[in-house]
Fold:
Amino acid sequence: MKIIFIDPVFGISGDMMISALIDAGVPFEALQKTLGGVPDIPDIRPVRLDQGILSGVHLEIGRSERHFSLTDMEKIIGSLDAGQGVKDDALGMLNIIANAEATIHGVSREQVHFHELSHIDTIIDLVCVASGMRSIGADAVFCGPVPCGSGTINTSHGIIPNPPPVTLEILKGHSLVFYPENLELVTPTGAAIVAYYAQKRDRVPAFREMAKGYGVGTYQSSRPDVLRIFVGETTSPLHDEEILIIEADIDDMEMEYLGSVIERVRSAGAIDVLHFPVAMKKGRMGIRLSVAAEISQFENIVEHIFAETTTFGLRWHTSFRRILRREEETIDTLYGPVRIKKGFDRTGRMIKTHIEFDDVKAIADAKNIPYREALEQIKKGIDS
Structure:
C-alpha cells in the first residue's frame, strides 16, 4: 500500500508542503490548472533552492492584496473545475481552520474573520495541497512530531504567543516539539494539513521509498528550513491503531444511573463503552465498565469515570484495533438525504455499507412509522 510520511524537519506551512509535493514528482502544471477558477491569481513558480547541503523546491508567490471572506473562499473552492475529492479536501482543511478560529475567539463559525488567513495565499495553499495529495493517491498519511517556535510573533491581532493559539487548537492530539526559535515554524494552514491528513496516526510503519521531496523555506537559522516528505510502499497493516482499554468494577452504584453515565463517558471522547455483569468478592454481583479510548483521551476519560461512578480505582492496558478504511457519502432518496458509510478492505475494494441510523430515525419519526419499516423503504429506494 502507498503511504506519505510528512517529516517536518523545521516546521510546516502550506507553500512548503506544495513545494515538497512538487519535488516529489507532482507536476506543477497540474496544480496551476487546478487554480484556474481562482480570481486574480498572482504569479507562482517553483524554483530550486539550497539550504546548506540540502536542495529542494521553493515556491515563489507574487505579491497580492486580494483578500476573501470565509464564505467567499468556500464559494471559490466549490466552483473550481477540479475533482470533487480535491474540493472536498480543500474545504475540509478550511473547515478545520474556521472551527479553530471560532473556538479561540469564542464566536460562531459564521462570525469568524480570518485576518492574515483571508489572503489569497490560503486558497492557493489549500487547493494545491489537496490536488497534489490526490495526485499521489496514498492510502494513509503519517506525520512526525511537529516543531514549534517559542517567544512571541507580530500579527494583525498584535503581539501574541508563538505558536499562535489557533495553531495549537488545530494540532490538539498531535505530537509537538518546541525549539528556542523566535520564528513561526508551523502556520495555521500547515497545522490544518497535518490535522486533516495525518489523523490519529502516531507511528509510521516500515516502508520502501518510492519518492521524496524537499520543500525549502527562507528562514535563516541554525537548523535547515526544510519540510521533507516521503512517498513509500508498505506491507504493514495501515489501519491498526493502538488504544487503551480502561476498566472499573462497580457493585455499589444505583444501576438506573449507569445508562446515563455511559452516555456521558462516550460523549467525553471514548471510542466505545461496554458494561456487563461480573461476579465479585463475597459473591456480590457487579458491573464491569470497559472503555476503549484513544491514548490522548486517557486523562479526560479517567476524570469522567471517577466523577460519574462510585469506583475508587480503575485499571488499564494497551490494545490494538483494526478498522476498515471508511468513506461517508450522502445520497438523496425519496424520503430525504441519507448518509451511507462505506468500508474498504486493504486492496481498496468496498466490502460493506451501512445506512446511518440517525437519518433512518429522523425519517421514521417524521413519517410516524417503525424504524425497521423506514429502513426497508430507504433500502428499496436506494436499490431502485
